[in-house]
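Q: Can I see a sequence and its folded structure?
A: Here is a first one.
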Amino acid sequence: MKLTLRSNLSSEEHVVPFTVYTVGMEQQSAISRLEGFSAHQLLITASGKGRVHLLGQNKWDIIEENTVLYIPGGFPNEYVPVADGDWLVAFVSFHGSAIARASWGLGDAPSVIPVRSAARLLELVERIWNHSGADYDTWTASELLFSLLTELRKQSSGDLNPAALLRPAPETSRSSTVLKAAKFLQDYMHRDISIAHLAEQVGYSQKQLTRLFLQTFQTTPLQYLRLVRLTAGQLLLETNESLSIGQIARHVGMEPTYFTREFRRAYGVVPGEYRLIKAQEAREAARSGNAPRRI
């Protein structure tokens, strides 16, 4: 079964404690999010295996069937299938305050949560999906999300530990349509994103959305997406020596040839040259004790 990505960008996020942001089910590809995701994520393995690397860890955790991975918003992470095309994952991402999350044992640290059976969780994900996207129903989707959290709590056999002293997360500017759209482009830069679909999701025409982007960021949505992808590619070149240029290009949603051409246009050198320059700067900085500069 595959449930294509559905997003709820126009939701009233403070009407209920939790609101669903994105939901779906797919064969999971490799993802690197060096600044984390803009919402809190629950990833439920339906079949296959994946590996996840979290900030502060020197190891990769294995995510198997009947396992739920919780990653709080803004927490840097990367995850990959153990074998290409062999990690079927259902996902729900949501917004909610720290106090609301803490009451369910979901704090500001990631968790790998074993469950007795993922079948009921997968059923609830599908039901949330049915009430998202074009058919988004805030109340029903949130009610089903609470049902999913209840089932997760019931099956985790006490593995979730509420952090009752967590303070509420500071309010953000998510209510701004253009900022929601920009966050969505950051979160899903690795996908083939249609600006027409994005505009439809936030309830604006393409012309209106472009005008909002120009007013806020002095750039169009497509130019903003290009910048997001190139910036992510630049960071991956510096921090992931094991990734080829082609792999990095695919991670950020660009064809390798196009990525190389646009990277050179933005930074004056091709990605391979940039990587060599940064490696040399790092060696010199290690000898001198100075931090390497960014191009």
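Q: Show me another, different protein.
A: A second, unrelated one:
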Amino acid sequence: MSFKYILYDEEEKIGFISLNRPEKRNALSRGLLEELTELLLKIGQEKKIKVVVLKGIGKIFSAGHDLKEIADGSPQDVLQMFQACFLTMRAIREIPQPVIVQVHGIATAAGCQLVAAADLAVAAEDARFATPGVKIGLFCTTPAVFLSRNIGRKKAMEMLLTGDFMSAQEALIHGLVNKVVPSSELEAVTSELAGKIACNSLSTMAIGKKAFYQQINMEDFQALNYATEVISLSSTTKDAQEGIRAFLEKREPKWSDN
């Protein structure tokens, strides 16, 4: 597959996707979003890799949607752009592979939404996050969805109503990112995390990822009932049987997708 707005590389069981519009601060144009969705779905279908790392080329991760497309587009054009973004977020959620975002510089508006929608996030210590749409008269209602599911309501509303930046350390404290590291170590630490996850069975992670997001908004015992059914059925899978035997026999498991 050839792309205009993104780059893609694979290293062993890890896929590295790079937003490649540095001259536009990696703005999420409709074209970029469509390419990203297409690639994510292909990765999910082929199952050749076990983890996806999403990062940005240039000085920043992403400044969000391409405002020129919004300013110059018809209402239908703008709707189609936001629908393209919806499909990207759904692809991140629905592919079996965990998606790790590697953040440097800034992640604002829909760029912040990408961070919040991903399964995991690693940030450079000088990275900053914001949902500044309110400052240009376009409240960040779509970024608010995943932002409010990552951090507390009061903090989410503060970001949405002020448009102010959140530091990487604040993002760690409030649950928007998993790790904050020196800029010089960002790529190595992210790759190390991806490599650790890639040692696991993809089919096991796929079951777990789907179940995690299914149960998260359920009432406690509804969630537990659902999770009980999932783990009971999962125990009969080939990789679960292999993993349990390997543990009992004190050896490394041999996953079906290795």
